[in-house]
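Recall the central idea of this unit: under ordinary conditions, the amino acid sequence of a chain determines the structure it adopts. In this exercise we apply that idea directly, starting from the sequence alone.
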Amino acid sequence: MNALLELEEVSVAYDGIAVVHGVSLSVAPGSIVTVIGPNGAGKSTLLNAVMGVLPSRGRIRLYGRDLDATGVAARVQGGMSLVPEARELFGVMSVEDNLRLGAFRHRAEGRAAASRALEGVYALFPRLKERRRQEAGTLSGGERQMLAMGRALMARPALLMLDEPSLGLAPLVVRDIFRAIAELRTTGVAILLVEQNARAALQVSERGYVLETGRITMQGPSATLAADPRIVELYLGHGTE
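Accordingly, the structure predicted from this sequence is:
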């Protein structure tokens, strides 16, 4: 199967200092791929480069099309969505208004299409439906993460990128978030997941990459990585859930 997303020798620098070095990876349509690694390894930087937020060298392709000269807005229009670590919600707006903003890409299709997408998000995250009239700024951390993911899904992306979705959340909430990520597999959306919780990330994904000091040091099927003694020692041995 042809890759939906392809990265070829992608490098990213801040102020002339290289942070990501020659990363190559691919994401197949409808698959879940994870990038794990320690804090400061360059995982979030990599996602921001894919989204076009940061300049990069190398090749980034979506559906085989080179994105070199493509900005953030065009990448969103082309089917990419990023849920950043900061979540970036509109705190004084209601949950439902935040979600409807995510449907801007499909505004020409009218309110009926947006309402169908909204019901899909509510089915995935029933708690958001309960809170739909509540201001986003009053939500718990877990609810804010659900809302950020839901808003990204309103754009009906082909590729959803998630940056540390479990960060700062209680274990029970983390399980809810990863349950939702697993359920998204049935919708056909591909997911590129950056996550420090290696145990949960490898359980939910088909393929994994290990990023350390800006370089891919290991890659393979997630089950193989989860059984690798080095991965167990560095990322799984003390429990990450």
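The CA atoms of residues 30 and 188 lie 4 Å apart.
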